[in-house]
Write a structure and sequence with these properties.
The complex is a heterodimer of chains A (331) and B (318). Chain A has 331 residues and is an alpha/beta fold. Chain A has 2 domains: 3-228, Rossmann fold; 243-327, no CATH class. Chain A contains 12 helices and 12 strands. In chain A, strand 7 (175-179), helix 8 (187-204) and strand 8 form a beta-alpha-beta unit. The two termini of chain A are 30 Å apart. With 318 residues, chain B is an alpha/beta fold. Chain B has 9 helices and 12 strands. Chain B has an 8-stranded mixed β-sheet, sandwiched between helices. In chain B, a hairpin with a 2-residue loop joins strand 9 and strand 10 (230-236). In chain B, helix 3 (109-119) packs across helix 4 and helix 3 (109-119) packs parallel to helix 5. The two termini of chain B are 29 Å apart. The mean pLDDT of chain B is 90. The chains are: A alpha/beta (331), B alpha/beta (318). The A-B interface holds A 42-43, 156, 158-159, 186-192, 194-195, 198, 213-220, 222, 239-240, 243, 253-255, 257-261, 263, 266-272, 274-275, 331 and B 47-48, 154, 156-157, 184-190, 192-193, 196, 211, 213-215, 217-219, 241, 251-252, 254-264, 266, 269-271, 273-274.
Chain lengths: 331, 318
């Protein structure tokens, strides 16, 4: 598979009154054609900011200060704003966590879908209407013709997310960025949306960057996983490898903190402490203060990403030593 | 388990619908009965709008029940007068989902924990301070947090303060309304472990309201599954996850994303949305989404039937 998107040394900093906040601090990753890449991490780790950086829509006072984003060989960061706007929505689409507030409450659903197609494809209103009906039925909406006349407030959260997916996919984008697409939804609706994304991916061959904090969603959807902590990638590997042979103590901790149905132990494994605030990172390894395996070296030397196996990268000085039974995942 | 602590009998909570009261009332909770034994953790699970939070609030009389009885240690709880309300607060406390908005931003941590003692006119200044410090330590914070304000703390720390405040009056039962759903996974585990250890230490009884089934399965002894204001199934935690009877429970369990790439299946996904509680379907509330539905289901509401060992389910088709 060819590399569709390549991100090198991406740095997105926020310039606030309290100083510079390095939300994304030297991130490298790539996305192959037809692949689902999951970016996992807790709040504040920079996963959403990296996705906004990809479409060059970092909110003020944030700025991409360094790095390159290569989409089919072209650096998106050097594109003029007009060219970038043509790419957004047609080549690179995004769906957000909160589907109800992503839609404009003042306009009917039909208008909001047609707007994207008229803008990017340059087709007539009548054609756009026909295609909108097709797009709505492809995301499993019954009675798509009547649906065009509805307003967002008339729909449930799951229905709004289906509309968002229809809008995102109506121009056949190469890459779909899904930022926590199911977090605001109930489990049964989450299962419906995940199944829909999976089947649409199969039909259209769109690559997906799935941003989530739920390891269960990752297991069900992803081909490859990137674990982020404090603005950096700490581990990257194939999905089976991440679940069977995680190397970074943070990944292991995340996996162990999920309650396991077949396990009757009283206490859950927990990572001590909390995620450091952005900009208050320790000097050495950023995870060292919370790590059970950290030693003096970890507190002094910031680790690089090491290749720990084919396609398996880990940012830990002690990754070769993780035979500590406490750190073995339960699954 | 111990003796029966709380008994809920035929509890109904209706919200009047519409601005001019012409619309149908919203039946948030519609005739549920269950009991909680001392020292037990009972989980209430369901999707949004199923009435699980309303049940929790009605038990603590934060929302007045429309009808039905709530018996605590055999006495009926009433909230007519201020004295009666204070009396309830001594026995029943709540922990809320959003730790930020449930704390007064202008109260220091110490003040927030002392507040219930002040309201109940318990102890003098020194004793209250001592009690607050004791609780701060019990929930795993440091004594220097006494003078901090909520905005200086992380979400996990704020939730710990919510727990300390709930404990300050030595309640017997704590209703926890989604106590960990706003927290990160690694912090979630810390809070759940803390709540477990406090339960042992103070002999607490929990009613644990959550939409997260794996957490309920880990935390609770007994699980109640609610759908559209009704209890559809109730059983011990192992029983309900091993042998779910009601089709809704089965669907809920199969919708949980399993953190194992080799066990993934999205085959048994149920279609459709939860109907509006303002216009619930006639008969069985789940009949609109159920795959096993027969005409009988939409004629009459199925009663809860006992399937042995306290496993109750409300379905005609099993």
């Amino acid at each position: 598979m060819e590399k569709l998107l390549e991100v090198n040394n991406l740095k997105t900093y926020f310039y606030t009154d309290k100083g510079v906040m390095p939300a994304v601090d030297g991130l490298d990753f790539h996305l192959k054609e037809g692949e689902v890449l999951a970016i996992v991490g807790e709040s504040g780790c920079g996963k959403s900011v990296s996705s906004m950086s990809l479409i060059n829509m970092v909110p003020y006072p944030g700025k991409i200060v360094d790095g390159e984003i290569l989409y089919m060989g072209e650096n998106l960061l050097q594109k003029p704003p007009d060219d970038m706007r043509k790419l957004r929505g047609s080549q690179l689409s995004i769906i957000f966590q909160d589907p109800i507030s992503s839609l404009n409450p003042a306009f009917k659903i039909g208008r909001q879908i047609m707007e994207t197609m008229i803008h990017h494809k340059g087709i007539s209103k009548a054609q756009a209407k026909e295609e909108a009906i097709l797009a709505l039925s492809s995301v499993g909406i019954p009675d798509p013709i009547g649906f065009l006349q509805k307003y967002p407030h008339e729909l449930s959260g799951g229905m709004c997310q289906r509309v968002m997916i229809a809008i995102a996919l109506c121009c056949n984008p190469k890459i779909l960025i899904a930022d926590e697409p199911t977090t605001a939804l109930d489990v049964t609706i989450q299962a419906q949306i995940l199944r829909l994304l999976k089947s649409l991916k199969k039909e259209t061959g769109t690559s997906i960057i799935l941003i989530t904090h739920d390891m269960g969603v990752v297991a069900g959807m992803a081909d490859r996983v990137l674990v982020m902590y404090a603005g950096q990638a700490v581990e990257e590997a194939d999905v089976n490898e991440i679940f069977e042979n995680p190397k970074h103590p943070y990944t292991i901790g995340l996996l162990n903190a999920i309650p396991n149905p077949d396990d009757n132990t009283e206490a859950l494994y927990n990572i001590k402490g909390t995620v450091p605030s952005i900009g208050e990172y320790p000097d050495g390894c950023r995870f060292a203060p919370r790590c059970d395996m950290a030693n003096e070296g970890c507190e002094k030397n910031p680790p690089e990403l090491y290749e720990a196996g084919s396609g398996h990268f880990v940012r830990c000085l002690r990754h070769k030593l993780n035979d500590n039974p406490r750190l073995k995942p339960k699954v | 388990m111990g003796k029966e602590l709380l008994k809920v009998e035929d509890l109904c909570v209706y919200y009047s619908g519409g601005l001019f009261k012409r619309a149908n009332p919203i039946k948030a909770v519609d005739g549920i009965s269950f009991s909680v034994d001392k020292g037990e953790s009972v989980g209430i699970v369901g999707e949004s709008g199923c009435g699980k939070s309303t049940t929790g609030y009605a038990i603590t009389h934060l929302i007045k029940p429309t009808s039905g009885k709530i018996l605590f240690n055999g006495d009926e709880l009433k909230s007519g007068t201020r004295l009666e309300r204070l009396n309830i607060a001594k026995k029943l406390q709540l922990i809320f989902q959003n730790s930020t908005s449930s704390l007064n931003p202008r109260f220091s941590v110490g003040r927030a924990i002392e507040e219930p003692l002040l309201v109940h006119k318990m102890g003098n200044k020194g004793e209250r301070r001592e009690r607050a410090l004791e609780l701060i330590e019990a929930v795993g914070l440091k004594p220097d947090h006494f003078d901090s304000f909520p905005h200086e703390l992380s979400g996990g720390q704020r939730q710990r303060i919510g727990i300390a405040r709930a404990l300050s009056l030595n309640p017997e039962l704590i209703v926890c309304d989604e106590p960990v759903s706003a927290l990160d996974v690694s912090v979630q585990a810390q809070i759940l472990n803390l709540m477990k250890s406090l339960q042992k230490k103070y002999n607490l009884t929990y009613i644990f309201i959550s939409h997260n089934l794996p957490i309920v399965q880990h935390f609770c002894d007994k699980v109640i599954v609610m759908y559209l204001g009704h209890i559809v199934e109730m059983a011990d935690r192992l029983e309900i996850f091993k042998n779910p009877i009601h089709p809704y429970t089965k669907a809920l369990i199969s919708s949980i994303p399993i953190p194992d790439p080799k066990k993934v299946s999205l085959d048994e996904v149920i279609e459709g949305d939860v109907p509006s509680p303002q216009n619930p379907p006639p008969g069985c509330p789940f009949s609109t989404r159920c795959q096993m539905v027969v005409p009988e289901c939409s004629e009459e509401k199925p009663p809860l039937k006992d399937y042995g060992n306290g496993h109750l389910a409300a379905c005609f088709r099993v």
